[in-house]
Amino acid sequence: MSSSRGAGALAALPALVLLLCVFLFPVARMLGYSVETGTLDWYAKALGEGLYLQVFWNTFWIALLVTFFCLLLGYPLGFLLATTTPGWATAGFIFVLLPLWTSILVRTYAWMVLLGRSGVLNGLLIKAGLISGPLPLLYNVTGVVIGMVHVLLPYMVLPVYGAVRRVDPAIVAAAEGLGATSTRIFRRIYLPLTLNGIFAGAVIVFVLSLGFFITPALLGGGKVMMIAVLIEQEVHETLNWPFASALAAVLLVATLAVYAAAQRFVRPQEQQP
Amino acid sequence: MSRRLLVGACAVIYFFLMLPLVVVFPISLSSAAYMQFPPPGLSWQWYERYLDDPQWIDATVRSLYIGGATAVLALALGVPLAFALVRSRFPGRVLVDRLALAPLIVPTIILSVSVYGLFARLKLIGEWYGLVLAHTVLALPFVVLIMGAGLRDFDRSLEQAAEGLGASRARILLRVTFPLLRPSLISAALLAFLSSFDELVVALFLAGPNMTLPKKMFDNILMEIDPTIAAVSVMQILLVSVVLVLIGRFGRGLRGSAR
Asked: Which ipTM score applies to this complex?
């Protein structure tokens, strides 16, 4: 079928038409709304007024927190899965992928049940006599971060797993043979050789966090405002299209800029998914 | 010693990962009239409430056929696209590749608001096929990634052998290429279905008065924390488990399909 090389490119056409009509064109059209008046007034409002600037900072700060905790939890998990026996790894992966593919709504609802004032966790802690009154775990940044870390953790586990798998076992065996302790092997071999994987995972988690909607909308209870929640409100409640478009443009540029900047730091071998 | 510490830490992390999935089971079987834990007694009342409510059933059926249509369309467009990206060299190939994967990175809220603006103009809000088009854009990256991986591992000499034996191109595709790619095709179809079936943000904007299951769940969660949602959640978790088992049994390796 080597003769089909040129014609083979035509197979991309139908998908390309869909992407142009239902992705590129509408996004470009919306971005156009934000400068409809011929001025940058809506951008000045988005980036100039304290209220909205605060939302951008909130979003940025929550994304950083989520990335940090995903790293903290995702590295050990990815490491264990990559260094255990194939049988355990398969079992371990099932319990990473099951939450990953379970509806975000289901998981967010479950966290509301767990974290609420009269929720499962507070109930158990009070019954155990560990606390006297309920802890504020829901409708604040704590709740949003817990819910988002739960959703995004698998996105950290998988790149870390891949990076640890690529470490040549011969190097580790050599270090062991020379009498290196396991701590030293981790610090001197695994950690430097898996930095790329850590970085790739962190970037994905951070970028996805920036645009998160469902978790902050439900677990934030209107008290934690992130940029995606604000955009939804501007469209559905305030009906301020040009302003929503300007906010979306800022979010889009921030997302793509972080992603593009990160790509430059990742070595070529890492770019293959 | 430090290995034991790692295993212990991971046990805690798994507890965190599985806790929300497990907790909905007892709540869905609660006999209490409102959310209470531990449940005072067991009953099927919330499952009955779900089955007796035409709104819930209506939303479920709609989500099922929108998910099915999305899987069909995403495969119909994504499989040829993956073939073109892996097997052909053409100007702008890298750009097309980036564009096809972009919906993974671009926040869904941006796609939703943009398409909402366009579809409102075209009077497509509330139409099920409008939702299918938008969901296909979101499902396309999964299809391209999975089929792309399948095609890169593909042994071309089998096709060349069939060609050498005089098989037509269509026959090679149907009798050699697709059967060998079946695991990838199954994974891609199931994940495309699931991505649509679970999708909320686009549906929030495009579904209009015609509820999909996630939109109905979202509205219910906002109104009241009623254990009916727990019953729906349990059924969702079971559905996802079945799909993952199917992928594990007939599809391309789970690890490869995750990203």
From this structure: 0.89
The amino acid occupying position B226 is: D
Residue A15 in 3-state DSSP? helix
Q: Is residue A21 situated within a structural domain?
A: no
pTM of the prediction? 0.90
- Bridge partners of B30, per DSSP, are B42
Quick check: is A180 in a domain?
A: yes
- The fold for domain B46-257 equals MetI-like fold (1.10.3720)
Tally of structural domains, chain A: 1
Residue A4 in domain: no
Give the minimum alpha-carbon distance from B146 to chain A in angstroms, rounded to a whole number.
10
DSSP string, A196-259: HHHHHHHHHHHHHHHT--HHHHHHSTTTS--HHHHHHHHHHTS--HHHHHHHHHHHHHHHHHHH
Q: CB-based contact (8 Å) between B7 and chain A?
A: yes
Owning domain of residue A132: 43-265
Query: For the domain that residue A225 is a member of, what is the CATH number?
Result: 1.10.3720.10
Q: How far is A124 from chain B (nearest CA, A)?
A: 9
B193-227 pLDDT, tens digit each = 999 999 999 999 999 888 999 999 999 888 876 78
pLDDT band at B256 (very low <50, low <70, confident <90, very high): very low
Task: Specify if A197 maps to a domain.
Answer: yes
CB pairs under 8 A between A and B: 257
- Report the residue from A22, A106, A155 with minimal CB separation from B133: A22
